[in-house]
Amino acid sequence: MMDETEEKTPLMNSDSENGYSSTAEQLLKGPINSELTSSRSTPISVPDIKYDPEKKPSAGTRSSSQHSTTNLQSLMHLIKANVGSGIMAMPLAISNAGIVVGTVGILVMGLIATHCMHLLVTCSHYLCEKEGHAYLDFGQVAEVAFKRGPGSMKKFSKAALIVVNVFLNITQFGFCCVYIVFIARNVQEVVEGYSDWKQIIQVHEVLLVILLIPFVIFFCDLKKLSYASMAANVATVIALIVIFQHIVQHTKPANRFPAFTEWSKVPLFFGSAMYAFEGIGVVLPIENKMKTPEDYRGLSGVLTLGMTTVTVLYTAVGFYGYLRYGLDDKPIRGSITLNLPHTWLYTGVKVIYSMAIFCTYGLQFYVPVNIVWPHITSKLKLNRRAAKIGNYIFKTGVVLITFSIAAAIPYLDKFISLVGSVSCASLALIFPPILHIITFWDEKDRFGPCRWHIYKDVLIAILGILGFITGTYTSFDAIVDCFKNPNKLGCKA
Is the pLDDT of residue 265 over 80? Predict the structure, then answer.
């Protein structure tokens, strides 16, 4: 006879319904419990529990997992998930807004992004308690919230799940495209700095793709990716230490810089900042994995401490990077690595950071590919050999698609702003406050005196929508302008 507790084992996430979570959360069950990739929006593994929105199993199985993480491990995961290629664009982000507005803006956006993460965790806890689920991921929170929400919202529950997961996957592919431009641009700088071989960036992207295709085909499995994650983490830490000690030297006086630039550049600042702050995709997987999830929330919790550290780090790199390279004859580039001097030390930094991003490409690439491909095989009903060959062809095709997009948009800073405005703003600023309102719609006492939380959530969502619209438009416009005027300052391709 089946044990009673077995009958109530929570079902979390069927691959056909929500493959993003199941693939993402299993990604790094690798050596020495390295469960996090080295970039933001990176999946964290959780117990293999399936989700069925029609069933209400008992909660409380979280602590039984042998892979549960401590508070310190969770803190490190959160910081690593948020610190990637986006931090290198912070000096340029501040240059688009001004030394005062840009610096304060990063702090404020960090505060709002952290608050939205707390909103998402609060919704997850409440819905798990009400529905009896042990865990819910981002997409599932959206689905269950709409299903329990006002009558007119219930019919959109499946659509909410699909929309959130589509944006999560768009983000992953967007990062892969940015990574190709990032690596190719840094390699181009290294090659041109030490040889007379000068080619357009697309040539370097072609050479990069020649390496990426066998990498994603033959080395893109869970165990090997976990080693790639560790290597990328070490390279990132080394590069950040060397870069930071460089930018704090020989800075210019802050009073020489404009406090505010112009309104037309603010959307570019918004997009770049949101690209860097997009860590909301890992917030729930990290919390779901903790031994003591009650320590995750609160002013002194893991989430607040981790995001405070990330925000301070972003602000410091952006502020000092702007003071170091702002007002120079050459403009601040899309990545601060491109402004570093041509010495062996800083050339080495460009190389190891590019290697870190190369490894991270495989990690970001793995998740959406392993969601889409099973759906294709289920439709085609291929045998094992045909499925294996088809998988190779499919992965090659996806790499070529990301390459084609990267080659078409070789302007790193504009590309970063575009990805940040389109997908990151939606996930970080628009969805969480909307889900918070819908989740607690029938318990309006939870919104505080005069229901001020509703007004606050609406204002945050409006900010996200405005950033989405203006950031996307301005980024596209800047890209088109660079195509029309390739010799314009800041339009090097």
Answer: yes
Per-residue confidence (pLDDT) for residue 151, from 0 to 100 = 84
Q: Which helix (H) or strand (E) holds 385?
A: helix 384-408
pLDDT at position 292 over 80: yes
Measured from the Cβ of residue 373, the count of other Cβ atoms closer than 10 Å reads 17
Q: 36 in helix, strand or coil? A: strand
Half-sphere exposure of 360 (CA within 13 A, CB side): 36
Q: Which element (helix H / strand E) includes 468?
A: helix 452-484
Q: Is 394 exposed, middle or buried (0-12, 13-18, 19+ CB in 10 A)?
A: middle
Mean pLDDT of 329-350: 90
pTM for the whole thing?
0.82
CA distance 457 to 439: 12
Residue 490, judged by CB atoms within 10 A of its CB (0-12, 13-18, 19+), counts as middle
* Closest C-alpha to 62, from 295, 306, 292: 292
- Provide CB contacts within 8 A for 154, sequence distance 6+: 146, 147, 148
Q: Is 199 helix (H, G, I), strand (E, B) or coil?
A: coil
State the Cα angle at 435 between 113 and 289, rounded to 5°: 65
Q: Coil, strand, or helix at residue 292? A: coil
Report the distance separating Cα 424 and Cα 21, nearest Å: 17
Query: What gap in Å lies between CA 213 and CA 77, rounded to an integer?
Result: 28
Distance of alpha carbon 491 from alpha carbon 185, whole angstroms: 13
Structure tokens at 355: 């290697």
DSSP structure string for 296-308: SSSTTSHHHHHHH
Query: For all residues of the chain together, what is the average pLDDT?
Result: 83
d(C-alpha 192, C-alpha 211), whole Å? 20
Asked if 128 and 53 count as a contact pair (C-beta separation under 8 A), the reply is no
Q: What confidence tens digit (pLDDT) does each residue in 199-248 have?
A: 889 999 999 999 999 988 887 666 676 677 778 888 888 999 999 999 99
Q: Of 98-107, 353-362, 391-400, 477-486, which has the strongest mean pLDDT? A: 98-107
- The phi and psi torsions of 83 (rounded to 5 degrees) equal -105, 105
In 248-383, where does DSSP find H-type helix? Answer: 266-277, 283-288, 302-325, 344-380
The CA-atom distances, in angstroms, between 376 and each of 50, 213, 215 are: 21, 20, 22
What value does the CA radius of gyration of the chain take, rounded to a whole number of Å? Answer: 22
Gap between the Cα atoms of 148 and 131, Å rounded: 9
Minimal CA–CA distance to 133: which of 206, 57, 80, 72? 57
